[in-house]
Amino acid sequence: MSAFILYCSLGLAAAASLDYSGRPTIDDLKKFYGPNKAIFVLGRSFSPQPVKGYIPHCIWSQQDFLDGHTLMLLEAYGIGTEIVYYVVNATLNKETGRDAPPMMNAALARYRRRTNADDLQGDHEPPRIRRCELLFWEENKHLIGGFDLCTQEFDNLCPYGKRQC
Questions:
Q1: Domains of the chain (ranges plus CATH)?
Q2: Rg (CA), the chain
């Protein structure tokens, strides 16, 4: 009887290990950016542009509006002694593949390239650049470490990026 119980428990463990659902889904992303949750940037693969001679610091986001695949974030950062608030409109898209993360495209703009004052060339899309950020909730700001898996995922997705924070 004890051998049968051991076999059943091993079978359950093996079944559980094959139940991998891949990276987070769009629904997980929506839960992450839940209402009234302040989210801070721990690290990023790109350097923010200086504003008024200062590098932005203490960057955070909070959901302002979420409807279907449209997400509006209230964001802020500090420069010098002032805090700048702004709104980011983002579209959430599901990438193909089981292990593909959801994508958040923010402020994708179309622009027209001017070769001279009178000649407008057709619409062009700016080049897409993968930018990665490590984010954490405000309620976890007391944690010093414990982001090892997140850091590893960050390095896998942005192998040539350097953490700037």
A1: 20-157 (2.40.128)
A2: 21
Tens-place pLDDT, residues 40-63: 777 777 677 777 888 777 777 888
* pTM of model > 0.70: no
Question: Would you give the distance in Å from CA 122 to the centre of its chain?
Answer: 31
CA-based nearest residue to 37, from 145, 141, 156: 141
Neighbouring CB atoms inside 10 A of 61's CB total 21
Handedness of CA 34, 36, 40, 41 (dihedral sign): positive
Q: Give Cβ neighbours of residue 158 (< 8 Å, ≥ 6 apart).
A: 45, 130, 131, 132
- Is residue 104 within 8 A of residue 90, CB to CB? The reply is yes
Q: What is the 3-state secondary structure (H, E, C) of 105-147?
A: EECCCCEEEECCCCCEEEEECCCCCCCCEEEEEHHHCCCCCCC
pLDDT tens readout for residues 106-163: 653 344 444 444 444 445 555 555 667 777 776 666 665 666 766 776 677 666 655 5
Q: Which two tokens stand for residue 117?
A: 């004052």
